[in-house]
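Hi,

I'm pasting everything inline rather than attaching a file, because the server keeps stripping attachments. The sequence lines come first, and each chain or strand is labelled.
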Amino acid sequence: MIPFDYDRAVDARSAVETVASRPGAALLSGGTNLVDHMKLGLATPDLLVDVSRLPLDTVEITQDGRVRIGATVRNSDAAAHPLIRERYPALSSALRTARCATAPPTHSRWSPWPPRSPSRMG
Amino acid sequence: MSPVRPSSARSEPIETPLKLRVDGEHHELTVDTRTTILDALRDRLGNTAAKKGCDHGQCAACTVLLDGRRALTCLALAVAHDGADIVTAAGLAERDDLHPMQQAFLDHDALQCGYCTPGQICSAVAMLEEFAAGHPSAVTAGQDGPMELTTEEIRERLSGNLCRCGAYDGIVAAVRQVTGR
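And the predicted assembly:
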């Protein structure tokens, strides 16, 4: 992994501007894929802009009645959220069976195949 | 073969100060930004409870409680978790009094080599809290009504933690003991 600078974003706009204007910059949130790819040398950012602490971790109903899932909401939290479970059960179910390796590992990368849920993954 | 570097990339390590609370103790250290929490714990703070298995987020031997939730420390950059409260398997015990999950693992021979055990125990402790908070799993039946922590639920909810010795039956039995079943 090459050395990189680290910058904790203060808001989404400045984070996007930084990453858009600086080649070699990358957004960091959970890091599941990015950090792994950096270890493998598949990604070589020289600046990480950390957006994980931005207040984007809510699931809420928008004015036009739809549901907005914040960019930093974890898959497991979205799957468990009452709004998602009630209004988008297929999404909740899909998230629970998602092959996500990282914490909290409430859904398995190593689930039996085929999945026990009705929806098979394509 | 070394990875291709952007022309602007530096080759010198970039260091940053950091505060971590680990098993109740406060630490201040300076780390290379590339340091994972796992390496900070093991190599810098001498806490070897969390184990390095695959180092790619696939085995979960490195699981700890990170700000109260189970997390894989091999993919978590320490710099991104400045100020975090970390509890490793070693920090679950109250001095000589084992955590009920630790005792249950002993009672049920829920290990052979023991390498995955600290991660299994942290994961199991957090899993019970997730279950109590109503988090569904891939095998949770239906969308409504109370959930029951069946053997199938326990297996699914701990399926991210691999045990190459195959101590799974004992692990499930240990978790069932803690839940009073």
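The first strand of chain A starts at residue 5 and ends at 8.

If the labels don't parse on your end, tell me and I'll reformat.
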